[in-house]
Amino acid sequence: MTQNNLLDKAIKASYVGLVVNIFLSIGKFLAGIFGNSMVMIADAVHSASDVFSTLIVLVAIKISGKPEDSDHEYGHERFESIGAIVLSVMLAMIGCQIGFNGFESLINGDYENSPLPSMIALIAAIVSIVVKEIMFQYTKKVGEECRSEAMIADAWHHRSDAMSSIGSLIGIGGAQIGFAFMDPLASIAVCIAIIFSALEIFRSAVDKLTDHCCPEDVEDNMNCIIASVEGVKRIDLLKTRLFGASCYVDVEISVDGELSMRAAHEIAEKVHSQIENNFDNVKHCTVHVNPFEK
Predict the structure, then answer these.
(1) 120 and 34 in contact (C-beta within 8 Å)?
(2) pTM, 2 dp
(3) In 3-state terms, what secondary structure has residue 35?
């Protein structure tokens, strides 16, 4: 599948997520109002935030898909990481707000005077869990196929919304059987889960903005492939750095010092081709040749 096809697929998935989030946020908000559930209203706010997060993802994907230009000679892939960081901050802020509202209700005892949540809120929570888990699996699959960090972050945003709805379900169910404190308590549990998701998204995005190396197993595979190229006497250096969804590789190899420049260059070209052909996310591989010395 070409890069343009992958980009179109990612944009289509983002539009699907946008439509689903709009309908879910409206449905959960109405269910929270008419179903007397504070945690469901908080859940609706979380879903509404997904609308803005998906818009951020759309912008990030479109910018990152732009070709190299005179101002960005290495491309625009890192804009996806920036989008993922914005998403993570939004997610953490929403989680903190949900937790604060639940904590305030527990401390002030507001839940004792509130009417019990009704069945409509419970049904809304169940529907949200199912829909959001489906959206998580779908968005994550597309994100991995397109190697889109922002889309994978958005997928985890869907998963955090599913977790939020699970908390809502527990809180609403507990309140209905007489444990009214369960509704605001569930909000605090949801807050913790959301913040952990936000921190993981933030960490991953920062890694790609700060030239973090590829995973160790990937570098081990690269070493094996380079060593298998005929004419390579020794691998002197292998460095990798993540660049958004892509990766740059720098290699130094030793070859027979008696070889002609043309022959040494041909070995370097083979190494270059093997790395770029065997690792889809490698955008460019630079190979430097040294004369072999024992």
Answers:
(1) yes
(2) 0.61
(3) coil
For CA atoms 14, 18, 19, 23, the dihedral sign is positive
Interior angle at CA 139, CA 130 and CA 79, nearest 5: 140
Strands 246-255 and 282-291: parallel
- Please give the structure tokens belonging to residue 129: 């869990």
From the options 3.30.70.1350, 3.30.870.10, 3.10.310.20, 3.40.1190.20, give the CATH code of 216-291: 3.30.70.1350
Hunting for tokens 């740059």 — which residue is that?
A: 248
Share of the chain residues as helix, strand and coil, in percent rounded to the nearest 5: 70, 10, 20
CA dihedral 121, 126, 127, 131 (to 10 degrees): 140
In this structure, the number of other CB atoms found within 10 A of the CB of residue 155 comes to 25
Cβ 154 vs Cβ 191: under 8 Å: no
77's enclosing H/E stretch is none
Give the pLDDT confidence of 114-173 residue by residue, as tens digits. 666 778 888 888 888 898 889 889 888 888 787 776 677 778 777 777 877 777 787 777
Residue 118 CB partners (closer than 8 Å, separation 6+) = 34, 35, 36, 37
Order across the sheet with 282-291: list the strands.
234-243, 246-255, 282-291
Instruction: Let me know the angle formed at the C-alpha of 192 by 99 and 130, rounded to the nearest 5 degrees.
Output: 95
DSSP 8-state assignment for residue 115: P
CATH of 3-209, one of 3.30.390.30, 3.30.590.20, 1.20.1510.10, 3.40.50.2300: 1.20.1510.10
Strands (E), the chain: 234-243, 246-255, 282-291
Please give the single-letter amino acid code of residue 147.
R
